[in-house]
TrEMBL record:
Belongs to the DAMOX/DASOX family. Keywords: FAD, Flavoprotein, Oxidoreductase. This is D-amino-acid oxidase. The keyword Cell division does not apply. GO terms for molecular function: D-amino-acid oxidase activity; FAD binding. One of its GO terms (biological process) is D-amino acid catabolic process. Its EC number is 1.4.3.3. It catalyses: a D-alpha-amino acid + O2 + H2O = a 2-oxocarboxylate + H2O2 + NH4(+). GO terms for cellular component: cytoplasm. The lineage of its organism: Bacteria, Bacillati, Actinomycetota, Actinomycetes, Kitasatosporales. PROSITE patterns: PROKAR_LIPOPROTEIN. Its cofactor is FAD.
Length: 316
């Protein structure tokens, strides 16, 4: 039987990865999205191979490791993916967390000379950093090369959003909630400041204290400083007082940032759900594969969950 065409709704990191995996497997795919650029949550992410604000399960672990392998394969200046040393530091001692301990790539205890003043403990690991200012355009280029058109338009409802024969993949991040009638999805707001990079090459995550988890991530052209996780907050505007606090805290962890200029700012809303929704459903007379609710880990889970979504498409 000929394969049915697929329409992916959403052009953040999750939707674009789903579209590419399906195209690589020989499906006719197109993407429909309100927008694909700076206003997506994906553009606001720093983005580390890390899995906060998402379900803790074996399947998440599998998706993360599948994504890790693919990110490492695609690393390079053209993709914005590069391996970077990341230290996680704390003022207090970390509570034991067996799930995370079994999760992380090999890490070692930080030496005393690797801890910022006032921090008692830390670990160091090498993980991929995904500079989304390069990675998202690269994914869009891969789509163009694979013959996947990206149509920029609002989808008000699933009914009539694509030809009747198409399978729909719903990968619209927080926008999936209203489209699927899913009240379990909620925003966890994050704010970032982009600073001039005085030459930093190492990521720092501060796991405790105000604004935790605070992250300081040097990318190719800037340093992303971000942190506060505000559950249920929708405000899209950056708050100046929060920004000043972020920059102050970042300079405590990385003193070289003390005089760095703020050159940009963004707010993003993590699409958080008790569980990532990865399931096929008959909805409004359509075959729909849901792929949303990746919380604070959409980049880190992108390739693994895209493969799982493509498997579901192929079972329909
Ligand atoms: C401050 C911050 C830091 C983060 N750090 C990390 C990190 O270090 N590592 C990590 O893995 N993740 C991180 N995340 C989380 C990550 O950004 C998200 O999990 C991920 O971006 C979700 O991707 P998505 O494609 O599902 O959603 P989005 O990127 O929001 O994309 C949704 C897409 O759907 C479209 N859409 C929505 N509704 C409609 C509609 N009705 N009609 C048409 N189109 C629609 C949008 O236009 C967009 O194209 C961070 C997030 C924030 C905010």
């Amino acid at each position: 039987m000929p394969r049915r065409p697929v329409t992916v709704i959403g052009a953040g990191v999750v939707g674009l990865s789903c579209a590419l995996v399906l195209a690589e497997r020989g499906h006719a795919v197109r993407v429909v999205a309100r927008e694909s650029g700076e206003l997506t949550a994906s553009a606001a992410a720093a983005s580390l191979w890390a899995v906060p604000f998402v379900e803790r399960s074996e399947r998440v672990r599998e998706w993360a490791y599948a994504t890790l392998a693919r990110l490492r394969r695609d690393a390079g200046p053209h993709t914005g993916v590069r391996e970077q040393e990341a230290r996680t530091v704390g003022v207090g001692r970390a509570a034991p967390d067996p799930w995370m301990r079994g999760f992380t790539p090999p890490l070692r205890q930080a030496r005393a000379d690797e801890l910022p003043p006032g921090y008692r403990e830390g670990t160091v690991a090498s993980i991929p950093l995904v500079d989304t200012s390069r990675y998202l355009p690269w994914l869009r280029e891969r789509c163009a090369e694979a013959g996947v058109p990206i149509e920029l338009r609002e989808v008000p409802s699933l009914a009539g959003c694509a030809p009747d024969a198409d399978i729909l993949v719903l990968a619209a991040g927080l926008g999936s909630g209203p489209l699927a009638g899913d009240a379990a999805l909620r925003p966890v707001r994050g704010q970032v400041a982009l600073l001039e990079n005085p030459g930093l090459t190492r990521t720092t995550i501060v796991r405790d204290g105000p604004l935790a988890p605070l992250f300081v991530v040097p990318r190719h052209d800037d340093v992303v400083v971000g942190g506060p996780a505000q559950d249920g907050a929708w405000d899209p505007r950056p708050d100046r007082a929060t920004e000043r606090a972020l920059v102050r805290r970042a300079a405590r962890a990385e003193p070289a940032l003390a005089d760095a200029r703020v050159i940009g700012r963004a707010v993003g809303h993590r699409p958080v759900r008790p569980e990532v929704r990865l399931a096929a459903e008959r909805l409004g007379g359509r075959d729909v594969v849901h792929c949303y609710g990746h919380g604070g880990a959409g980049v880190a889970l992108s390739w693994g969950s895209a493969r799982a979504a493509a498997d579901l498409v192929e079972k329909l």
